[in-house]
Amino acid sequence: MAGLLGLSRLIDAINQFIGKQVSWLILVAVLVSAYNAIIRFLGDGLPAYLPIPRASNSLLELQWYLYGTVFLLASAYTLQRNEHIRIDIVSSLFTKRTRDWIDLFCHVFFLLPFVSLIVWLSWPWFQRSFISGEISANASGLIIWPAKFMVLAGFILLTAQAVSEIVKRYAVLRGLIDEPNPQHEMHPAAEAAIEMEEKRDD
After folding, report:
1. Where are the alpha helices (DSSP H) in the chain?
2. Mind listing the pLDDT tens digit for each residue in 73-104?
3. Which residues have CB under 8 Å from 85's CB, separation 6+?
4. How many Cβ atoms from other residues are within 10 Å of residue 6's Cβ?
5. Where are the domains of the chain?
6. Which of 20, 49, 57, 93 is deepest in the core (most CB within 10 A)?
7. CA 79, CA 75: separation in Å to the nearest integer?
8. How far apart are CA 147 and CA 122, in angstroms?
């Protein structure tokens, strides 16, 4: 079990690093989006001698690539931080141990098979695109295989994080480790909603 916990810590460290680093791409995406909107708004009013890129499909596609990259590569970190969508109002009715068992069951029988299937299906999908040098059908569009690679990479990271979460839930249930993520107790929004309900009842 010590080896599995070591693996879990390694996976967590990798996904935490990647999740924090790719978050900066949101700023890049916003800047690209703002630039594209401004250039499109100014249109023909820009002097032709200015050596700046004009609005194009490549800039639009770059926005999609950046947002997609953040969503895919940070999803594993989101799972690790327990920030994924869950019905906290319902789960808060259960004991901590029951929630741990539910998470373990869902990770093993739903999350892990699903993400593993996506990895298995996305590899040939990416490979075909890479070998053929697939390019967007839009005029001045970008090459497509980097975006498809992000799908593959994102689900590989999510698969690894699913394994890490399974190891941690099992270890917590066995009493081998303390709860590694305080946020697993309950989301702050759920706590606030419950407190409001209790005040209304009083």
Report:
1. 2-22, 24-42, 57-73, 75-80, 88-91, 96-106, 112-132, 145-173, 188-201
2. 999 999 998 887 766 666 667 788 888 898 89
3. none
4. 11
5. 2-201
6. 57
7. 6
8. 11
Residues 6 or more apart from 52 whose CB is under 8 A from it?
Answer: 39, 46
What span, in angstroms and rounded, lies between the C-alpha atoms of 16 and 66?
19
Comparing CA positions, the residue from 61, 9, 20 lying closest to residue 165 is: 9
Torsion sign over Cα 39, 43, 45, 51: positive
Is the pTM above the cut of 0.70?
Answer: yes
Determine contact, residues 106/150, Cβ cutoff 8 Å.
no
- List the one residue out of 157, 141, 118, 119 whose CA is nearest residue 19: 157
* Residue located via tokens 């697939």: 134
Task: Return the pLDDT at 55.
Answer: 58
User: In this structure, are residues 145 and 130 in contact, taking their beta carbons and an 8 Å threshold?
Assistant: yes
Token pair listed for 146: 């980097």
The mean pLDDT of 14-42, rounded to a whole number, is 89
